[in-house]
Amino acid sequence: MPSFVWKGKNRAGQKQEGVLVADNRDAATAALRRQQIQVANLREKGKEIPFLPRFPIRVNQKRIAVFTRQFSVMLDAGLPLVQCLEILGEQEENKKFQEIIQHTRSDVESGSSLHEAMRKHPPAFDDLFVNMVAAGEAGGILDVILQRLSTYLEKSVKLKAQVKSAMVYPTTIIMIAIIVVWVILWKVIPVFAQLFTGLGGDLPFLTKSVVAASNFVGRFSIPIIILLTVAFFAMRAYYKTHAGRRVGDGLLLKIPVLGMLLRKIAVARFCRTLSTLTSSGVPILDGLEITAKTAGNAIIEDAIMAVRRSVEEGRTISDPLRETKVFPAMVVQMINVGEQTGALDQMLSKIADFYEEEVDVAVAGLVKLLEPLMIVVLGGIIGVIVTAMYLPLYTILGSIS
């Protein structure tokens, strides 16, 4: 039997290497997977068989929610695990996600547990998904856990869709306003400026200001575009750092109307995620860590991690949660009641339901508020430019008369 020299990492991420005797390459790979080794390189008698690193594959969360719902229904109907994955892989339309499902099925067939196989594809199956599946496998209630997980994902998708729908309108209006004003200043105003120069006379202050802005835009358009592009990418790179996220997310939370909406979204996501994890049997410390990672806001994430450290020292959740001064007092009090009655997961679920309804109302109110506000702002800008161009004409007509 041939010998294979391998290199890889174990579940803890530690690098390991060794020699394995097996019939062929596939058998050696399967044996290493059963030992929970993520193979990086495998060679036989000087011939290297590389395992090329896979690029992260992003999968739409709505598609994952549908997959989870179908998976839970199949398991509840009594179909074997491998057969469920085979059917789901064959019917999946997204080729990238289909490849992930097929790799997962192959790993399960080779002896890996489902959560271990899914852990290899973090862009599709995050820590929350993997830990809940692990809890379901350990408790023998995988179908129930997948039902809860699919419900959580569906609510999460709905929440994100609401936020996006609320932000699409103002973002579109602002972009259109910027483009329209830029084109007017760049192309239209210079025509009027030449006309006014030919007519002579002293121009009103408003007209002078608009003409000066037009000259500035016409002369420095390309440097301005370059500067804005560089600033955009610099801010984007800074935001990817933890300090940048704290600054940016902190400023967002302080915006009068939008900040309150984002806070409600963060509370709803925190309660829904932690409720789903605790009700599925995931330990509270692991649940808090996963919840922090999925918070979507650096300020909220740091607050949850501070709560986790306090819980690790033996304290309750509600007391350190109150000390962060990030979550509303009502939420803290309800969590305190849930801890005292031993029904924390149910209380968190009720809080999540309440705040998701609050988000619905807040999003509808924000859209109604932004529509007339954007119209007034855009109309005001265009009105100022038009007025500035017509003032000299009225002056000239008055002089002629």
Give structural notes.
By secondary structure, the protein is an alpha+beta fold. Among the domains are: 3-50; 61-155, Up-down Bundle (Receptor-associated Protein); 254-353, Receptor-associated Protein (Up-down Bundle). It has helices at 25-34, 61-76, 81-91, 95-109, 114-119, 127-139, 142-199, 205-239, 242-254, 256-279, 284-293, 298-312, 318-324, 329-341, 344-400; strands at 3-9, 15-21, 38-44, 47-50. The chain has a 4-stranded antiparallel sheet with strand order 2-1-3-4, covered by helices on one side. Helix 8 (205-239) runs antiparallel to helix 15 and helix 10 packs antiparallel against helix 15 (344-400). Mean pLDDT is 82; it is low at 48-55.
Q: Nutshell version of this structure?
A:
With 401 residues, the protein is α+β, with helices and mostly antiparallel strands. 76% of the residues lie in helices and 6% in strands.
